[in-house]
Amino acid sequence: MTKNPSTEKTPPAEKQTTLAPTGHARNSANLKVAILGFGTVGASVAKILCELKPQGLEMTHIFNRDVARKRVSWIPHSVQWTEDFHDVLASGADVVVELAGGLDPAGEWVRKGLTAGKSVVTANKQLIAHHGVALEKLAAARGCQLLYGAAVAGGIPVIPGLQHGLAGDRLTQLLGILNGTCNFILSKMEQGAEFNTVLSEAQALGYAEANPTEDVAGYDARAKLVILMRLAMRADVHPEEVPCRSITDVSAIDFTYARDLDCTIRQISRGQLHEEGVVATVGPMLVPKSSPLAWSRGTENMVIASGQFGGDVVFSGHGAGGHPTAVAVVSDLLAIVHGSSQVEFPSRKTTVGGEFMVPHYVRFIVDDRPGIVSEIAGSLAEFGVNINAILQKPGHPKHNLPFVVTVEPCASSALKKALARIAKMDCLQESPLDLQILEN
Amino acid sequence: MTKNPSTEKTPPAEKQTTLAPTGHARNSANLKVAILGFGTVGASVAKILCELKPQGLEMTHIFNRDVARKRVSWIPHSVQWTEDFHDVLASGADVVVELAGGLDPAGEWVRKGLTAGKSVVTANKQLIAHHGVALEKLAAARGCQLLYGAAVAGGIPVIPGLQHGLAGDRLTQLLGILNGTCNFILSKMEQGAEFNTVLSEAQALGYAEANPTEDVAGYDARAKLVILMRLAMRADVHPEEVPCRSITDVSAIDFTYARDLDCTIRQISRGQLHEEGVVATVGPMLVPKSSPLAWSRGTENMVIASGQFGGDVVFSGHGAGGHPTAVAVVSDLLAIVHGSSQVEFPSRKTTVGGEFMVPHYVRFIVDDRPGIVSEIAGSLAEFGVNINAILQKPGHPKHNLPFVVTVEPCASSALKKALARIAKMDCLQESPLDLQILEN
What we know:
Two copies of one chain form a homodimer. Chain A is an alpha/beta fold and 440 residues long. Helices cover 35% and strands 24% of the residues of chain A. The first copy, chain A, contains 16 helices and 17 strands. Chain A has helices at residues 5-8, 12-18, 40-52, 85-89, 106-115, 125-141, 158-165, 180-189, 195-204, 213-216, 219-233, 252-260, 292-295, 322-337, 372-382, 412-422; strands at 31-36, 57-63, 80-82, 95-98, 119-122, 146-147, 171-177, 235-236, 263-273, 278-288, 300-307, 311-318, 348-349, 357-366, 387-391, 401-411, 433-437. In chain A, the strands form three sheets. Chain A has a nine-stranded mixed β-sheet with strand order 12-11-7-9-10-17-14-16-15, with helices on both faces. In chain A, α5 runs parallel beside α6 (125-141) and α15 (372-382) runs antiparallel to α16.
């Protein structure tokens, strides 16, 4: 395991001198890189480092549990394979690339790395969403860097775009397709398939986990939205405060009705800056066909950042996968080599409050009888919710009849109260589904 | 003119200490900003500085010829208005924001600013395309920065995206809609109008200059493409080496035929990295309706960067206009405040050589007689160009008959030789128009 004893034994004091001082170009030795986690992304990072040989970067360690089964022949002999994190910590590695994911033990490794004065590049969205602010403080205190361009939308440079290119604007809204699995499922359902069929297909293709909850329930996208809101709106939001809605509630029939409304359905992560704070939500939403968000296909990711001065900027591309994510990691490593210090904008602890005042789509499935529409309309009116249109397509059995009501912009809470009342009607075959409609 | 004599008299030696050292965060005094050129963009930059009050930035000078007519009341009294560049040069300004445009005298001002140790932020595409490498060297030698995020695609953070987010990839192709005027004209022509009608409309709306040559001939887009190729492919290309084709050659009839081919027409700037060097071109091109490039509307800009590892990344948004361009300028100013040094990748002098091997669209207008298609097909075959399809729409007079031939991928030079032969045919009413067809 000790293939490079000379670097490994470098005392901490000397290590500091080989580390690039924050924001200073390193002209001397290469930046020594230790990769934590040799899965798909880790192997892709190693591949890029071996094939493109970016100037100033030298891979010195690969850390993984049961590392023996991970060994591949194309990695240079000079690289030390290890399953003991302390090998990395005690080594001369300047940067730890954390690709293990999850809060633990990855968080502990990142903290230990930073504490030892090693910069960290990570793709760990949950860690950065939950503990990014504290970890950035730790990095600053230790004079090293924490970069996470790969944590959101993989190969799409949204984070550098927000930090460097749009810093001069006041960003007021973020709209994102931040989960490739959900986009794959919903864009397939758009073509007529039901959720379970497409989920199986996605699992067979490796686009969805055996337990898809993290993706379909919106928790993955939520972590990414929280990171983007911190960078774009300087709002430090706790992920659990962002309401999520699962895409499992959406049926093929909803795509049929959406089409009649010149829309499709996508999992949208939305954050808005208001005078009083921020509003945010993640879940399936009706998206007008004319919006770039409706054009996303397969596992594609997309972010639309709207600024007070610059208007809308769209970023799209491959949001996940080993190679695109690895590009973001290597770009962060090069940023450290070139002394491009992270632009640090102070964020402040912000509560997700208020509501989106938006039009909604509500789908009912009823055992038909006279007077249903009148009752539903009555309940909506009672809570100040105005109906915009009623759609009912032919060809469905009377005892299991889907129909759709769209309502004018209203607070979700008012609609929810009305729907709670409506849900008590004996004719309802299942709970009504309400989705926000994205306005162009 | 001397409202701030204390800063103005600051001796150069002391100025250097208030200047942010390259790559170091400034924690002390504000970065003093002098704006050169108070036109649309200059006024927008001042507006953002006054309204958003970004931390660390202080506007100290506004320089313009005949400055008296430019004065506006919303600029703080502390700002010095001047029409003498030496006022700026001799002042305590840390950064010169050059928004005058053109090679001269703007280039001289930028050189003098850098030589005096002042960093420069510019939106000047022609200056950066022609002299960017030399100016970056000068900036590095003087320990200051030259940033030009606003020079390409205004408010869209393509330059930070390439420099910071995609640096870890090997970018092999750039496709861009880099000129909003041409995109406005062509997306209007798509709806049936002829060039001259739309040009007049664009001029009335302020989207096109009285003399539109710079835009329609492709020279504006070419300068931007050259800048992007330097950053993305490390290829230092002379703008004049990139072949340009004017969009004035395109007629309404071409959009009709393009539609039959499930395409539209856009001014596309294309650069490719080959083993032997680079290939580049700017001009109208057939774009499949399924490409994001076909979705661009109005003055929108778009860039698709394709990498060996990350695949395609799309950036789009408002490429021009005062406010979006000003966002890019202020973002660059903030990058200097936050000590984010420019990532410097060495570029090498590269000759634009070789050719695109792509399918082409060729439109003929003939005085019809028997045997024309056979003659044309014969000439094409003689130069090894294979016909893919022949399209002829009804409803045109026989003596002025447009028809279209699409050819399989071939070198443009071979096609041009064949067309030179064909151009001698007496039946031709005008020179044939050949356009590249973008493949998906």
